[in-house]
Input
Amino acid sequence: MSVCLPYADDREEAAEVLNDGFMKIFKSVKTFDLSRPFEPWFRKIMVNTAINSYRQHRLVIQGEEMEKARHAAEPENTLSSISYQEILDLLRKLPPAYRTVFNLYAIEGYKHEEIAEMLGISVGTSKSNLHRAKEALKKHLNIFFETDYVES
Output
């Protein structure tokens, strides 16, 4: 679930991705090479399932989410430490295209060339989406922490 949550809009969607990923794993477990580590294979299937889910919903959701991101309400202000759930909430404020590239690059460690190939976009679009995701996150963090600037 921790692999799926950053890619999903909510816990319910993450659970759907998780279920789809487990179905893929159960169907292909016979092809798993026992001489290799299981966790990276498992994680890659879950990430790819999340990406496939993103692709399926991209056209409809992308326009709606970009509009929502422009007019998003300010989150509650707090000076307490930021929790995992609060980080997920901030990530979910990003448009799906930005969020997906940010997750693949910053969390999963993929290179822009790999991301571009996975998502069917150009390397420049991947870099641009990452930059825009970082800028949007800075703004959301500034609001969250009631500050004027957050260093990258």
Q: What stands out?
A: Confidence is low (pLDDT under 50) at residues 73-79. The radius of gyration is 17 Å.
